[in-house]
Design a protein that fits this description.
537 residues, 80% helix
Length: 537
């Protein structure tokens, strides 16, 4: 448990710095190209394309399959050397091929994700895509190297490397503003040089991010060499396992495609692609810091216990990890919800835009706890080599996402369309998580559900006064007319960040005090992680 705590602390610290610099990156990006505009949505669509492919590669194949298989390959005579060399050779070939195909299909990819763009907006998005799509290759290498490091219990580099990407992007976007000015919302403002600087900066950051992981490779004790002899070390089993996860992520991408096309109708005057991207980044901050940082070391341990058929320990791992993650996730959701307007001011141009964007963030936050619990539940299936069951409960989620996205324009005006789509995704995720928990409980013969529910009830009880406290502080500092929201320019974004900290901090303090009064045993997790960050005397 000490090693798990240490790994979680390292991952949490790296993720925190990475996500904070990522928010700064978003702030500078919005300053350069705007937040509510056709040009900014064109760039967001193009830059999201390689991320979508990366999701297929990472979630669909690497995370679901590679860590358990590398753990098992350690029992080979060579410690998994041949298996990993063949895997890396195959992966590199696949990433190169995927990048080439995507480059050829760039105009069609942009159209598929934004069919309701105007013709000039589609042309700009395609120009950006040619610069952004090479990220697919570098994203693939980054994921393959990083997941291997995680499987070998080298947890830090995978989390810290994205900081370099963010810093390079921030510098590049600042250079863009120095050369061409800022807030280029209109499509006709862009020329090939501007497009090259903006798109090239985004791709350079991903390339450096992947290269940095290679420096940590020697800590695995493995020596890679190109090996095109792909038979005889179990890659066929990897392919069979990856087949279901690949289909699962394709289903997710199709659901995202439906969302993107629906929301693109609001592009120009209402929250759309750029606002949803920025709100998602804020939403992912607590998920990455807590769910991923705490859950990733547990996933490696669960995989080890599952490989040894130690099912009682798996059940204990699942219950402990869910409780440890949830104590942080519940308060994060409440704190960000009451601070949603100043938090949205960080990535918008004005207080009015922040008020428009805040409902999108709140609707995403509805699904924060279910998504975090699903992180552990889904990966427990992967630890047992079961990728088919997650496919089926994800198909249910995707179907609900598509239906909710298609129904949303019939129920809400364009100004609230992005929020409605986000809420539909959150509710679909809740249904998915409940189904996944029921199925995993059947597979393991129990999940310590009463203990988990008792912990969640304590967290929910503490969250109520915490939310009121945060909202009270938000009102005291002036609400939407106060300094945390209404200030102009870059100073307004910085004050939005400060206001988010003040409002959210008040909620966190009250939450911890209530849990202390309730004598919640889960507070030991909080104190343990805090001690990991403090220097020893």
């Amino acid at each position: 448990m000490s090693s798990l705590g240490r790994a979680s602390a390292i991952l949490g610290a790296g993720t925190l710095v990475s996500r904070v610099t990522g928010l700064v990156r978003t702030i500078v990006l919005v300053a350069a190209i705007g937040s509510l505009g056709r040009a900014s949505d064109a760039f967001s669509t193009a830059n999201q394309l390689p991320n979508n492919v990366f999701t297929i590669i990472q979630t669909g194949i690497l995370t679901a399959v590679i860590i358990p298989q590398i753990v098992k390959s350690a029992s080979h005579k060579d410690g998994g050397q041949a298996f990993i060399s063949k895997l890396f050779t195959l992966g590199t070939v696949v990433f190169l091929a995927a990048t080439g195909v995507a480059m050829v299909l760039a105009p069609w990819l942009v159209f598929i994700y934004a069919s309701r763009f105007t013709p000039d907006q589609l042309a700009l998005g395609t120009a950006f895509a040619y610069w952004c799509l090479p990220q697919i290759f570098f994203y693939g290498l980054y994921a393959l190297i990083g997941e291997t490091l995680n499987a070998k219990r080298v947890f830090g580099p995978y989390t810290w490397a994205p900081i370099a990407n963010n810093l390079i992007s921030i510098a590049g976007f600042l250079v863009f503003m120095m050369l061409f000015g800022g807030n280029r919302n209109d499509v006709d403002m862009w020329d090939p040089t501007m497009i090259a600087v903006m798109g090239g900066t985004a791709t350079l950051g991903i390339a450096v991010q992947a290269a940095l992981l290679l420096a940590a490779w020697r800590r695995t004790g493995l020596h890679l060499r190109p090996d095109f002899r792909w038979k005889g070390v179990g890659l066929g089993q990897v392919g069979r396992l990856a087949g279901w996860t690949f289909l699962m992520v394709i289903a997710g991408q199709l659901a995202g495609l439906a969302q993107a096309n629906v929301v693109s109708e609001a592009s120009g005057e209402h929250p759309a692609g750029t606002i949803m991207m920025a709100a998602w980044l804020v939403f992912m901050l607590p998920y990455s810091i807590f769910a991923v940082s705490i859950g990733t070391p547990y996933f490696t341990q669960i995989s080890e216990h599952a490989a040894e058929s130690r099912h009682d320990e798996v059940r204990g791992d699942v219950a402990r990890s869910i409780r440890a993650i949830s104590i942080f996730i519940v308060v994060s959701a409440v704190a960000l919800a009451v601070a949603s307007v100043p938090a949205s001011r960080i990535f918008t141009q004005s207080g009015i835009e922040a008020e428009q964007a805040a409902p999108v963030l709140i609707c995403y936050l509805v699904g924060l706890l279910p998504l975090s619990v699903l992180f552990i539940v889904q990966r427990t299936f992967y630890a047992y080599g079961d990728t088919r069951t997650p496919f089926w409960f994800t198909v249910v989620q995707c179907a609900l996402i598509v239906v909710s996205a298609l129904v949303a324009p019939l129920l809400v005006p364009l100004s609230q369309l992005a929020a409605a789509v986000a809420l539909g995704q959150s509710l679909a995720g809740l249904v998915q998580a409940l189904i996944a928990i029921v199925l995993l409980r059947r597979r393991l013969g129990g999940l310590e559900v009463p203990g988990i529910l008792l912990s969640l009830s304590r967290f929910a009880l503490a969250a109520v006064p915490a939310g009121f406290a945060g909202w009270g502080v938000y009102a005291l500092i002036g609400g939407a007319d106060g300094w945390a929201v209404a200030s102009d320019g870059m100073a307004g974004r910085l004050l939005g960040a400060v206001g988010t900290g003040v409002v959210g901090g008040a909620a966190v303090v009250v939450y911890l005090v209530v849990l202390f009064l309730l004598r919640a045993p889960e507070l030991s997790v909080v104190s343990g992680l805090v001690k990991r960050f403090l220097p020893s005397r």
